[in-house]
Amino acid sequence: xxxxxxxxxxxxxxxxxxxxxxxxxxxxxxxxxxxxxxxxxxxxxxxxxxxxxxxxxxxxxxxxxxxxxxxxxxxxxxxxxxxxxxxxxxxxxxxxxxxxxxxxxxxxxxxxxxxxxxxxxxxxxxxxxxxxxxxx
Length: 136
Hints:
Shape: rod-shaped
Oligomer: single chain
């Protein structure tokens, strides 16, 4: 709705005839105050909506970036970082290994895989000296 000069002049003359010259300035002030209050309220509502949208977007962004880790199941044993980095084979080997003895430090305890790999080396007889080498 676009009002030109002739339409605005007609409305002004109509309001002047209806309300009179004494009431017209008071009505104009009231209309101005009402429009200003409406504008302020709409801007406030717009700001609140934008703020809520920013908060919701931030929450969604946090959920996408770092979802909380699920709680561990009951009756499970925590796995250390070293055995977890070795994968399932390291975890299985660590679970089947004998507890370290007093003579073996805990950090050097042999696992079942290491014991099986070392078994042929221990049971093999010492190689005989080659030809031309006299026994020592």
